[in-house]
UniProtKB/TrEMBL annotation:
Belongs to the RecD family. RecD2 subfamily. It comes from Romboutsia hominis. Residues 116-135, 180-199 form the Helix-hairpin-helix DNA-binding motif class domain. It catalyses: ATP + H2O = ADP + phosphate + H(+). Its EC number is 5.6.2.3. GO terms for cellular component: exodeoxyribonuclease V complex. It is an enzyme of class 5 (isomerase). This is ATP-dependent RecD2 DNA helicase. The gene is recD2. GO terms for biological process: DNA recombination; DNA repair. NCBIfam families: recD_rel. InterPro entries: AAA+_ATPase (IPR003593), Coronavir_polyprotein_1ab (IPR050534), Hlx-hairpin-Hlx_DNA-bd_motif (IPR003583), P-loop_NTPase (IPR027417), RecD2 (IPR006345), RecD2-like_HHH (IPR029493), RecD2_N_OB (IPR055446), RecD2_SH13 (IPR041451). Pfam families: AAA_19, HHH_RecD2, OB_YrrC, SH3_13, UvrD_C_2. The keyword DNA-binding applies.
């Protein structure tokens, strides 16, 4: 390894995604090209680099950097260049000159140790001093983290994420418990954390390590939808991960339970191991369901049949028997699940229930798990529907900096009736938060299609509640005439029943285009989306058509289809600003999706007369503007909400010309295009196909090989999730805890 020292005189290239940088390093003797991961580098900075000389075919001799360290500039010129480089917010070129003229070589010492003295410089007030100190500190801390962590193979990009999460506590957190990184930082797995741990000197058989491995295994299993793991499975998986003896794992499981980090529940001869929040939520859901169902509901003193007749007359419909039953249960029973596939009249039933309650002065509140599902519910009911998170008023309590729900047992939701749609998407944690915020006496109506994919989060709540037979369930099974005319609806039910589909009926809305190779499928999809569908169906290629894929990777996965579709749906143009992040290009006009809930992300309209906060997982928007100087991408959602993302926040956004079927849950689109090709069996499943097809309102086009379509229809291997909700609800019922 060789070392060089000098000042950065130019930055030739910087990849914002992974920090790869090509720069010129100058010292009194010469100027050389250095390359490597140096994300925080800026012109004027003095650094020391460690690495080796290489010879590049095209670019000649360059220095490949393994490790870099900032050195405090000592020369007046160095200090001036550093301060004026733009790295310290609040100091421009003029101000830098003034400061250096005043304090000379002691400038950096003053900023660090006696910042109040900056006020001696003309034009610097307290506010400016605070800004300079904060920015200087952040810069220093980030550098320290990079220097400390890069030997463990953590890329600078992750260092930035780590810094954002823990701020100046980062090194302390990592030294105390490196495994915390695996829990908190998306993309850092147990293996990386374990590597740091071993370098810090944590032994393979250390109980800390094994305990963290057990917690990590349980955390990972949440990603597969499990609310607990049977002990034998947990032990097997932990042994595989940690390469230690089973006895030690067992011992650590007991210690974790003793420390109340996990809960062990006995069921028959098995031990079920839960992470605490999941145990509390599962029990809490059971308890709340019992409480809510047992309560005496206020008698509305109405003739239900007469009330139904009034609404039927107003709407010009006649409810089917099961719809009628659902309405009666909602009013008389008080807690009910209404379930059914597409076109079975769920919306019509909800609307009838709303009308009857409102005709009788009852306050009805509507909510759904995602922003898009709530928007759709608002549209079909002509009444405001909120996301469940908004209904529960997610926010910061005065004495805490953690987001939490303001609505709970003490401060319940004010309503006589609460109707929740798309309940299949609600996981066990959210269901508990919701139920605990409902006051006994409030009527609760849960609506959903239990054949859709289960929630992304742990649990199989809707299905378990239905299977338990503890809550009254009304199943809507009749497909109404109007709905029967749609092959989308008819085929969706056929998929659910494992039957062959009606393909390509003339004048209908469900087509299969046979293509064999992946290349043919991609070309066909591009042709359909960019030209033929907009032309023949008069739909907007960006807003109305959604391509859905079951997978992320591969030629026909979301990542590649987004790259291919972007080339045709939003071509590069001189007037369109774009920024290249190597893996992906963000360009003005791009269709994008927010991929995680961000309850505090601010938005405002163009003339800044309206603003708010909260952008949710699955929200689709368009890149509106890119400010390369400020390093900000602006995205517009719902035609008016403009949201800014700094470059290092772009991991919250994905292109969405194509999205995964999982992400499309709860959303509907006029036209859906789905590639049908080989994939691992768990991604060729009936409920994935069913969920994808039922997202379309006007037209479904499948493109690919019909043998995989047939395989999907047959493959009813329901992803079995470890969940104890149904069993527990029944157990409580048998033990006489439920009156009804
Ligand atoms: N009792 C009824 N008599 C006649 N038509 C009905 C009846 N109930 C619903 N419909 C019609 O059937 C179609 C589907 O109904 P609705 O939209 O309520 O079902 P849904 O289960 O919400 O469907 P989706 O899940 O596809 O939105 C609509 O056109 C609706 O007008």
């Amino acid at each position: 390894m060789e070392r060089l020292e000098g000042m950065i005189s130019d930055i030739v290239f910087k990849n914002e995604d992974n920090g790869y940088t090509i720069a010129h390093l100058a010292n009194s003797d010469n100027e050389v090209v250095i390359v490597g991961c140096m994300p925080t580098l800026s012109v004027g900075e003095s650094i020391e680099v460690e690495g080796k000389w290489t010879n590049h075919k095209t670019y000649g001799t360059q220095f490949e950097v393994n490790k870099f360290m900032p050195v405090t500039p000592t020369s007046l010129e160095g200090i001036y260049v550093y301060l004026s480089s733009g790295m310290i917010h609040g100091i421009g070129e003029k101000m830098a000159k003034k400061i250096v003229d005043k304090f000379g070589v002691s400038t950096l010492d003053i900023i660090q140790n006696n910042p109040h003295r900056l006020s001696e410089v003309d034009g610097i007030g307290q506010k400016k001093i605070d800004q300079i100190v904060k920015s200087y500190e952040e810069n220093r801390e980030l550098r320290n983290i990079i220097i400390e962590l890069s030997p463990y193979g953590i890329t600078p990009n992750y260092c930035m994420k780590i810094y954002k999460k823990y701020k100046n506590k980062a090194i302390e957190v990592i030294n105390k418990n490196p495994y915390k990184l695996a829990e908190d930082i998306r993309g850092v797995g147990f293996k990386i954390a374990d590597n740091i741990a071993s370098k810090i000197g944590i032994e393979k058989n250390s109980k800390d390590r094994v305990s963290q491995g057990i917690l990590y295994t349980l955390n990972q299993s949440l990603g597969n939808g499990h609310t607990y793991l049977p002990e034998n499975i947990l032990i097997q998986e932990a042994i595989k991960l940690l390469e230690v003896k089973g006895e030690l794992v067992k011992e650590c499981i007991l210690e974790l339970a003793y420390d109340q980090k996990i809960h062990i529940e006995k069921k028959d001869n098995q031990h079920l191991i839960y992470l605490i929040p999941y145990y509390l939520s599962e029990n809490g859901v059971c308890k709340q369901i019992i409480k809510l169902s047992q309560h005496e509901f206020k008698d509305l003193n109405i003739d239900i049949e007469e009330e139904i007749r009034v609404v039927e007359k107003e709407e010009g419909i006649k409810l089917a028997n099961n719809q009628m039953l659902a309405v009666k249960e909602a009013i008389e029973g008080g807690v009910v699940i209404i379930t059914g596939g597409p076109g079975t009249g769920k919306t019509t039933t909800i609307n009838t229930i709303i009308k009857i309650f409102e005709n009788n002065n009852q306050e009805v509140v509507l909510a759904a798990p995602t922003g898009r599902a709530a928007k759709r519910m608002s549209e079909t009911s002509s009444k405001e529907a909120k996301t469940i998170h908004r209904l529960l008023e997610m926010g910061y309590a005065t004495d805490s900096d953690e987001l939490q729900f303001m609505k709970n047992e003490e401060e319940p939701i004010k309503a006589d009736v609460i109707i929740i749609d798309e309940v299949s998407m609600v996981d066990i944690l959210l269901m508990y938060s919701l139920l605990r915020a409902i006051k006994p006496g409030t009527r609760v109506i849960l609506v959903g299609d239990s054949d859709q994919l289960p929630s992304v989060g742990a649990g199989n709540v809707l299905k378990d509640m239905i299977d338990s037979c503890v809550i009254k369930v009304v199943r809507l099974t009749e497909i109404f005439r109007q709905a029967q005319e749609s092959m989308i609806v008819v085929n969706a039910h056929k998929i659910n029943n494992g039957q062959p589909l009606h393909l390509n009926s003339k004048g209908k809305d469900f087509f299969f285009i046979r293509k064999n190779t992946n290349e043919e499928i991609i070309n066909e999809i591009i042709g359909l989306v960019s030209e033929r569908l907009p032309k023949f169906y008069n739909v907007d290629k960006l807003k109305d058509i959604q391509v859905l894929s079951s997978m992320r990777k591969g030629d026909l996965g979301v990542t590649n289809l987004n790259i291919e579709l972007q080339k045709h749906l939003n071509k590069p143009e001189k007037y369109k600003v774009e920024e290249n992040f190597q893996r992906r290009i963000f360009r003005v006009g791009d269709k994008v999706m927010q991929i995680k809930n961000n309850y505090t992300r601010k938005w405002e309209n163009e003339d800044k007369t309206d603003s708010g906060e909260g952008i949710y997982n699955g929200d689709i928007g368009y890149v509106y503007h890119i400010d390369k100087d400020k390093r900000i991408v602006y995205v517009i959602f719902d035609q008016v909400k403009i949201v800014s993302y700094t470059y290092d926040e772009l991991d919250e956004l994905d292109h969405s010309y194509c999205t995964t079927i999982h992400k499309s849950q709860g959303s509907e689109f006029p036209v859906v295009v789905i590639p049908i090709t080989w994939a691992p069996p768990m991604l060729l499943s009936r409920n994935l196909l069913y969920t994808a097809v039922t997202r379309a309102k006007k037209l479904v086009v499948l493109v690919g090989d019909v043998k995989y379509l047939e395989y999907m229809i047959k493959n009813n291997r329901i992803n079995n999730r470890h969940s104890n909700l149904s069993y527990k609800l029944n157990k409580f019922k048998e033990e006489g805890l439920l009156i009804k």
